[in-house]
Specification:
By secondary structure, the chain is mainly alpha-helical. 60% of the residues lie in helices and 0% in strands. It has helices spanning 15-45, 49-54, 62-66. The chain is rod-shaped, with a radius of gyration of 18 Å.
Length: 70
């Protein structure tokens, strides 16, 4: 699982460089979230129906779990 440090919060504007950095961080976070959702979806799809039932899921729940809605 990837991690990106987003704990530094700035209160001012750093102009163009700050906006470029913020855009890069936003794109990087989106890519990491997409990758994590894909890995979760693949792992859950590899389970049998019985194994999914053991953890309280069905095949129809996989997308919601991978997207963080459940």
């Amino acid at each position: 699982m990837a991690a990106l440090d987003t704990t530094r919060i700035t209160t001012g504007s750093f102009g163009l460089v700050g906006r470029i950095g913020a855009t890069f961080a936003s794109v990087a976070n989106a890519a990491i979230e997409w990758s994590d959702a894909r890995a979760t979806r693949n792992a859950l799809n590899s389970l049998s129906d019985r194994e999914l039932e053991d953890i309280g899921l069905c095949r129809g729940d996989i997308d919601a779990v991978a997207d963080g809605r459940r």
